[in-house]
Amino acid sequence: GPVGSGSFGAFYTKLDYYKEWDDLWRVSDVPDVFVRFEKSPVQLVFWRGTSFVPCWVTENGIWYTNEWLETWGDDVVSCAEPIMDRQCRYSHVRIIENTEARVVIHWRYALSDAFYDFAAVGDDGRGEWCDEFHIIYPDQVGVRKMELHYSRPERKHDWVEQIVVLPPGKYPDDVIEREAVSLVNMSGDVHKYSWDDDLEKEMPEPKGANMSFVNLKSKYRPFIIVPPGPVKTVEGTWDSPFFRTYAAKMARGRGYRPDPVPSAYGWWDHWPVAHV
């Protein structure tokens, strides 16, 4: 796609990968959405190759996403989430506001499994859907609003997960610093976590953390900020946001480390470009 900075704004385009892969798609010349920034080489991409999962792209080509809504259960195979929608049957994206002050992108998707079956199908046969609105500002900061249209009874969902999408030919250790994540609270206390330390599942320090920075090997590093107050979900109640990790020792023996590449990280090689 377009490289480098330009005037701030969003536009429809067609982002190419390679000919054989591109030829699999029956699409127009404008299936994807691209957001660029006047004072930064950072990009925000909604690409059909990721099922339109929004990805931030650093100046040196490292992709990053804050995940999507995901659920699981006996009514679906594995997980139900938009990345299972390889052909973008249900996932679509559109620009609904595009001014010098801000860009607003609407991403809508179904929670479906790899066989395109919906999760939590009720009497109406509709299953669960999500509308996401991404409000992007010229300083490369955005606000994400997620609206889940859920079925009863309520079930567990993943709402956010900080995911690094590897460039072609790269492995996790090539693009992530050894102290991979920095958690920060409103007092400015910082704690850095390294996967070399065989992390536990919980990330308890610093107390009251509500900001998480992913330390990529790039000038620009992605972060999330969530409200610092109490959190209540169907999984439990916490006094402040709860951070946890796919730790190195959790990944062992679960297929999260494709051989023969050694890595401190658990990682997959099936997404985004595979169509299986």
TrEMBL record:
This is DUF5107 domain-containing protein.
